[in-house]
Amino acid sequence: MPAPQAVHETDDARTRILKAAETLFAARGFEGASIRTIAIEAGVTNPVIYHYFGNKQGLFRSILLHASHELMAAVEATRLRHTQPVEELATIVHVLCRFATEHLDLFRIVYRELADTSAGQGSMLGDQLAILIQHISGAIRRATAAGVFRAVDAESASLVILGGVEALVGWQLVPRPGAGPAVRAPEEAAGHLIGLLWRGLEARPAAAPGAG
Questions:
Q1: Torsion of CA 62, 66, 67, 71, to 10 degrees
Q2: Residue that finishes a domain, picked among 12, 33, 54
Q3: pTM for the whole structure
């Protein structure tokens, strides 16, 4: 049986590897981050990474699954707490914005790899993305059935919501080089996005013929 100190050192090395990999994958993507660079950043040797994760793809998969599971657990919790679809949607937007600011590297990895499927890595997140879109589009359909939202393509609207969150993260929630501190707190930014989206989705009385 390993000594307690050896177990602690083993866990510490694995944690350092994951943290270094999160940072480098977020900044450079899967192809741009090498095992050698990750090892240097983590203060370990290449064989240590291979011992824990098999190869770079195994390390990347571990990070992707961790990120997507954390995010989906938070989203699922909102679905169970709310019975009103509009409240559920608003909370999901808040959760996504908050997750992005609290786990920025993980968030960047998820969005970067979903957008760049050329290396085949984005497919790892396909099932998780489909579940997230299903949650959002389901809430939109329920709001439409209740007469709160007008009839729209729910899946397209879901993608607009996700794209809006990504834009907020890039421009208003985190510091940018030469642009000073983050512009808005997650709650404020999410509130503005929700306001814009809801004005586009809300049901309105039919306009009179010829009305501009």
A1: 160
A2: 54
A3: 0.70
